């Protein structure tokens, strides 16, 4: 049986990818950030998930202005890194898990979530930067990936409540998959940031701290937060945080916070990162 | 204050890309999207005006692109994620792009972020901004 | 205020379009069918809707194997008829209503339906054949169209219950649109048909009659029907009938059946057609 | 009877295009999809094998297309809605296409539909079909 044992969230700043790809991780600007992910890399090396369900937003790379899916799931064999305007990132091809992805798609669609199934797409920094942060710079990524892309490009986005409920539906899907798989779910994007307009550069660390606290202990306090509050309080693009709620919904109510890291700033963005294990998994481990 | 069309219209210095802007910017964003291919970037850089003539851009949109007037592109329906294709093509980092929309110098903007970023205090509502 | 006053369902057989386009409507094979839609054309000419919300399925024309949206809404200015392999149908361009479509999209997404927004697509016989049946062969279509495409190409499809609930969400969206608009909703596809494999040609008129009866009087009896029952009882492709439930969900519980027509067969398909008016609209008229 | 993978596997003479078949038929259906353009149909008709070599079809899929073995295309992941592009290109009606999959002549099939279609009786379950 597939076992979804943990959830991980992280910001997915493109500049982090560029720093890695250009060998700048030891520079004073970047060293504290990469140091913050060392325990994470050790945790992943120990936990060895077979598959990561990686929730992210496509930043107008896979999806042209013609098509804006609210929720899309990648069912392809593999996903090539996108060329976002300066060439594709020099990272390994992302290997999918078509059978598991299709199972999830089927389960959540029959569970009344209106997914778009994607059989061919590229993946941008929203997906590859978290991979780099978790796994460093290997020749091959050590786990397969089921990409789930959430629309935060064109308003309206899915509500926080809907995202949390989707996480719960994903949990039910994983629980009915018959293969033995160790599964982790990742919610990416956020935290505070605004990268457009005269208010760009906004960072609200108090908001971020509350969000991190509630994510572990009281997600019900977060699911009702309207998009307006994210955008107003933590910068327009912080609304990416709704994707963290999908991760949280997929976990048990009772989780243990294994690790937390917070750093201001990488490029324009407050970097937040948390690892949650289901308590029942901790018992079994 | 006149009634706002959307709740988010009250956030200062911020434009939420919604369906109205999506319609307005459809051809502009389609143009940006094509810059994800090196061959298109090459043709664009060799003759920006000629390349843009392939798309049904308005005169205002073309002028904003040529002037790299990023706030104006947003006003004309540009979506920040699509616009990144142009700024990356130009070799700008996201920090340089974002800073360019604030009226600060790149150095001032970078320093503001090193100092913890723009505060939320005074930046929640248009009523807090002198010029809205 | 926008007023959704009636719903119309009809099969959307491609051969009907071909018969019209090739001037065969008077032939003995086709005459009874087209005669059955004469009252409909008169009803539309009298009711003069401004917009039709037209629920149909794309038959692998707008959507390549790369992308399979469960629910997609067309927000473009216009939609060109697709070339399905023998040239595009010689029918007028379908004019959209971007503002109304975007309002519906926004409303149903915030209402937790996970639409894919489409800003550019062609429309196939699933949309244009119903237009021809309702309006004949005018130079311009007499009303604008909001296309809503439902996946019945790749299993799993949305459930009947989900479709009915979507109809209810569409009703709420229409009721909050401030412009004065006379709106009709159309559910297309079905009835009995199977167009692939050794069992092709299946027609189950008893199933169809029950479906038509319940659609008007007892839609609750239909929403729980599993996909299996459609496919087994009325042919694999009859599952298109789930789209009729979206139409029905958008209407009031109390409706008046204005007209019904049933004909076996057009090409491979049992043709069913029904016009329902909300009783409150009938009172107002 | 062995346990069925899906409830719909029991419907005789019927193939439900699901994720497994979608994967199997991805390149085949992509090929069909390109036949929505006249220029592609022209090139295909001029040299079917050469045109198909542009797509990553299996040898079996190519052979099934050349033979217009519609049931075999379905077995190999073809989706009926995508396959219609090929049959329309060939000038077939949907009735001709569907009939060709039944083992009946076109005339027999047309007559069956004039007579009210194939009955549901005896056609609900594989257990009712002599050869499953
Ligand atoms: Fe992002
Ligand atoms: Fe159809």
Characterization of this structure:
The complex is a heterotetramer, with 2 copies of chain A (285 residues) and 2 copies of chain B (132 residues). By secondary structure, chain A is of the alpha/beta class. Chain A has one domain: LigB-like (Protocatechuate 4,5-dioxygenase, Chain B), CATH 3.40.830. Chain A has 11 helices and 11 strands. Chain A has helices spanning 14-21, 31-36, 38-47, 98-110, 125-135, 160-175, 205-217, 220-223, 227-234, 242-250, 279-284; strands at residues 2-10, 51-56, 67-69, 71-74, 78-79, 94-95, 116-118, 144-150, 181-188, 255-266, 269-278. In chain A, a hairpin with a 2-residue loop joins strand 10 (255-266) and strand 11. The longest helix of chain A has 16 residues, at 160-175. Chain A is globular, with a radius of gyration of 17 Å. The model of chain A has no long low-confidence stretch (mean pLDDT 97). Chain B has 132 residues and is an all-alpha fold. Chain B has a domain at 14-91: Dioxygenase LigAB, LigA subunit (Protocatechuate 4,5-dioxygenase, Chain A, Orthogonal Bundle), CATH 1.10.700. In chain B, 52% of the residues lie in helices and 0% in strands. Chain B has 9 helices and no strands. In chain B, helix 2 (26-34) runs parallel beside helix 7 (80-89). The longest helix of chain B is centred in the middle third of the chain and has 10 residues, at 80-89. Chains A and B meet through helix 1, helix 7 and helix 9 of A and helix 2, helix 6, helix 7, helix 8 and helix 9 of B. Strand 3 (67-69) of chain A pairs antiparallel with strand 7 of chain C, so a sheet runs across the interface. The complex binds fe (iii) ion (2 copies). Residues 12, 57, 59, 126, 189, 240 of chain A line the site of one fe (iii) ion.
Concise account of the structure shown:
The complex is a heterotetramer, with two copies of chain A (285 residues) and two copies of chain B (132 residues). Chain A is an alpha/beta fold.
